[in-house]
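User: I'm new to structure prediction. If I give you an amino acid sequence, what do you actually give back? Let's try with this one:
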Amino acid sequence: MSGKFCISLTRAKDDTDRATVAFVIANAALGCEQETMVFLSTEGVRLAVKGCANDIHEDGFAPLSELIANFVEAGGTILVCSPCFKKRSLDETNLISGATIVGGAKLVEFLASGSPCVSY
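Assistant: Good question. You get back a string of structure tokens that encode the predicted 3D arrangement of the chain. For your 120 residues, that looks like this:
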């Protein structure tokens, strides 16, 4: 077993349920002592912008902004697809804490170590 866990998230405000559950699982993976990375792509990159998650709160779950903050504080990594971010003309100077804009090679590198990956 690799000791790593990846979550690929392609949703944000277009599917707040999936976005929320992705970070619930990400926090659970950290709780299971897995080096955990969330890869944000397509619409998911919007969650890397400060304030985007502030008004997302699915019934039965903690607010998404809290889930993301807890994930980062616990040592989780958030990687943001550079082409997806640029396509949406988002502001690189307004990233949430813990988010890093990268190319797809970083995802491949992480997965090549044998990490399982779930997608939302």
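You can read the tokens as a compact description of the fold. Here is one thing that stands out. The beta strands are 4-9, 35-40, 77-81, 99-102, 117-119.
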